[in-house]
Design a protein that fits this description.
Radius of gyration of chain B: 18 Å
Number of domains of chain B: 2
CATH class of the largest domain in chain B: Mainly Alpha
Order of helices and strands of chain A: HHHHHHHHHEEEHEEH
Helix content of chain A: 40-55%
Distance between the termini of chain A: 101 Å
Shape of chain A: elongated
Oligomer: heterodimer
CATH architecture of the largest domain in chain B: Orthogonal Bundle
Number of strands of chain B: 0
Strand content of chain B: under 5%
Number of helices of chain B: 11
Largest sheet of chain A: 5 strands, mixed, barrel
Structural class of chain B: mainly alpha
Amino acid sequence: MNKLAEKIINQIKKEEIKPTSRWRFIVKDSFFWGAFVVSVVIGGMAIAIILNTLLNNDWDLYMELSGDLAQFIVITLPYFWLVLLAGFIIIAYLNIKHTKKAYRQSFKIIVGGVILVSFLLGLTFYNLGVASYFDRGLIQRLPPRFHQMMDSRLGVWQEPEKGFLIGEIQSLDEEIMELRDFEGELWQVSLTAELKEFLSKFLLHSNERVRIMGDIDLEKCERCFSAIIIRPLDMRRGGMKNQPKMIPIGDLHGMMKMDNN
Amino acid sequence: MEDQEISKKTDEELIVLTLKDQNCFLYLVRRYEQKLFRYISRISNLDKDDAEDVLQDIFIKVYKNLNGFDIDLKFSSWIYRITHNEVISNYRKYKNKVKVVSFDKDEEFVKGIADELDVEENLSLGESKEKIFDILSKMNIKYRDVLILKFLEGKSYHEISDILKKPEGTVGTLISRAKKEFLKILEQEPKKL
């Protein structure tokens, strides 16, 4: 036995050094894979919510809501979810980098793969309508001051003086809809004949979150609102095939001009 | 089991035997100590005693992590990886210990690197050895390491990729940059003389 080999074997025996258990390596590797999968799923959810926000954004009403397309994009982009998505892509990358074979792939391939998988997952979540329920569930569990951070659209629509109202339906009959806005105020929303017909096909229900375009009707009461357009904020359960078509009621732009005059 | 019989076992078989009987680790140590000692000396420029201390720590680490050995890898790549990581992560500490810069003057390495870098024309045969080692000792450790793995240890791109835990494309880039740095230092050298 040569000197170094002898020293090593003696040290192993003297210090009673034992090989680390195989399980520790398996647990460690599984942890990184598990964390990677969780990160990709959260990234997928973020993409689903971003898609939900962008595809259901009120692109046809940008003129009324902000007066300018660029400004409308800036104020309604889902920043929170974009930052969260970027964060979880980084976390997914760092986790996969710690697995045994990931080093064989380049940064571009790993990050590209993470984005692609997240996007496909996000598309699936979006089509299943999961994103909207997740988004809504999360918002309901958070204090109101975080709501606008989670969904930029809320700020745009919480402007009753400008003719935009957003909230949750409390009750609904043929004439009046009771709506609680996200600041906690209760509104009496009166519906036009066209809207009533539209809503009869639409089957809005209590607790549904809607955005309404119209005008405050001070002649009736302080919290009375005449609706011109009503749109649900969230997707319906059952995916895209169950989503109602968004039908503008009447000549919206004409009506808005008349209102302004 | 006879000494000769164990010596004929593959590295992977020796790992299995070592996990049953720690004395079998001796055969793995014997198989790799010279190669790793040379590799440590070449990349870190440590003197013999310090290089042996580092090597001892590396073998203890290898022994502790035997169950984590990935059977899809070559054992030699795995043990070189542990050695590389140990030297690089402690390089700052080792650097202060370096007193004498010394490379063993391996003929094949000199020829290999001189051919590859096409520097034979710039150097006379006598001075090429000294100059090449002098330049290597002045290089950034990450470039020196990759040149040593390629030209001195004779590792393939795939093996270097497994040792450095970098994609093969990145290994290619590193070797290419290392060659450029080598040539840059070579160009600067004569001006000093």
